[in-house]
Design brief:
27% strand; 33% helix; D-amino Acid Aminotransferase, Chain A, domain 1; Rossmann fold; single chain; eight-stranded antiparallel sheet; alpha+beta; four-stranded parallel sheet; Dna Ligase, domain 1
């Protein structure tokens, strides 16, 4: 394929990755165009002068019609959004462009189907059951044994995921998933929830391209009963042979699911009973992990993902062996963000490479106990994961966010 074709991006991440997909397409000599139901969700489109159109992105037929009307060749159809990967792959298949198996992607995105496939292949997973209403969820939890984890069968970003210690917590968590509208929960409507065995031990993710491991990420989680990711270390602070073991399990899972094409992000826990797969995601990692991988290794996962979708062969070769760490700014409670102190000092701290506020002072912050709670992030680097993590923690300690509690907003009471 020669340079100069369109990269059709179906929807986008609301954080940095979607923007970087467009930048990667341009760096490859391609022309990005973002299709979205509501382009205003993505402010970077206007800021970066990215071509975009309003399209029913849930319809492969609508996207195909748009592609047929483009002037110039379509080089790739892909997505950085969890919810649009399958539709994008279906369109790419019809157009004869490189793509993952659409059926495998859809099966993987249904967490219950994914679990059944992995368990049939002998890959370690938590015990689980799918439930169609709160009563069924409670019955499943009793069979599995408390504590359990309840989650939507199709979701991402820890939305609606909760550890439940008893039947009443299961009932309430399930009802919250079933009853909440898309705007409330930030998920498409759910017909089922997954009830699964609670896994102890630290959490990791394996970042892959096709069936090759690029690296292993160590994940930091906030306090239970929720599973909000508060930071990442790359590479994970483990011995090399331990990272290799995690990588082998992830690749086995991808092959069992028919997903050894393009990027994937596999989450695992190293429990007292061994390594268990939490879930496989047929897409790049979110949470700025691709940026950490690039800073640590020189491998630009986003550029590789776009090139793979466009049929361009780029060698996946590390340029360096270092470490990177990400930490997220999270509110202690809902309210009005009035000021963030210490940003200049943190940005000058040793090893800090990026410090970004994703919500400016004057913004109302809410608590959904998911990735959407974040209002900024910091990325640091070092000669290895240990040094990078230490630098990130010290820089974060310099930052102080002032938030007026929601109950006091409008009463003229100063933030202490």
């Amino acid at each position: 394929m020669t340079a100069g074709g369109w990269v059709v991006l179906v929807e986008s991440n609301t954080t940095g990755t979607g923007r970087l997909f467009c930048a990667a397409a341009r760096s490859l000599g391609l022309w990005p165009v973002v299709l979205a139901r509501d382009p205003l969700r993505y402010p970077y489109l206007a800021a970066d002068s990215i071509e975009h159109r309003v399209v029913d992105t849930g319809s492969a037929e609508a996207i195909l019609r748009f592609c047929a009307e483009l002037t110039g060749p379509v080089a790739a159809v892909t997505s950085s959004s969890e919810y649009s990967v399958a539709t994008a792959s279906e369109v790419a298949r019809v157009l004869g462009l490189p793509h993952p198996d659409p059926a495998a992607v859809r099966a993987c995105r249904d967490k219950a189907r994914q679990r059944r496939t992995l368990m049939a292949a002998g890959i370690g997973c938590p015990s689980f059951a799918a439930a169609g209403n709160p009563a069924e969820a409670v019955a499943a939890a009793v069979r599995i044994g408390f504590p359990v984890v309840l989650k939507p069968t199709a979701g991402s970003g820890s939305i609606g995921v909760r550890r439940c210690a008893d039947a009443e917590q299961v009932r309430a968590a399930a009802a919250a998933v079933f009853d909440a509208g898309p705007d409330t929960l930030g998920l498409p409507p759910q017909s089922r929830v997954l009830v699964e065995q609670y896994l102890d031990g630290p959490e990791f993710s394996v970042e892959t391209l096709d069936d090759s491991v690029v690296g292993v990420t160590g994940k930091h989680l906030g306090p239970e009963p929720y599973f909000v990711e508060t930071g990442h270390d790359f590479p994970a602070r483990l011995a090399a042979d331990e990272r290799d073991r995690l990588g082998r399990v992830a690749v086995s899972a991808l092959r069992a699911l028919g997903l050894a094409w393009g990027p994937a992000h596999t989450e695992l826990r190293w429990t007292s009973r061994g390594i268990r797969v939490v879930e496989v995601n047929p897409r790049l990692a979110g949470g700025m992990i691709p940026r950490a991988v690039e800073l640590a290794t020189g491998i630009d996962l986003i550029r590789h993902a776009v090139a793979r979708a466009a049929g361009l062969a780029l060698p996946v070769v590390p340029l360096r062996s270092a470490g990177a760490a990400i930490r997220f700014l999270l509110p202690s409670g809902p309210g009005l963000l009035t000021e963030v102190r210490g940003l200049a000092e943190a940005a000058r701290a040793p090893g800090v490479r990026e410090l970004v506020l994703t919500a400016e002072p004057g913004r109302q912050l809410s608590i959904r106990n998911s990735f959407s709670d974040r209002f900024g992030y910091l990325i640091s680097v070092g000669e290895d994961g240990w040094v990078a993590a230490g630098r990130a923690e010290r820089a974060m300690a310099l930052i102080e966010a002032r938030i007026v509690p929601a109950s006091l907003v409008g009463r003229g009471i100063p933030n202490p």
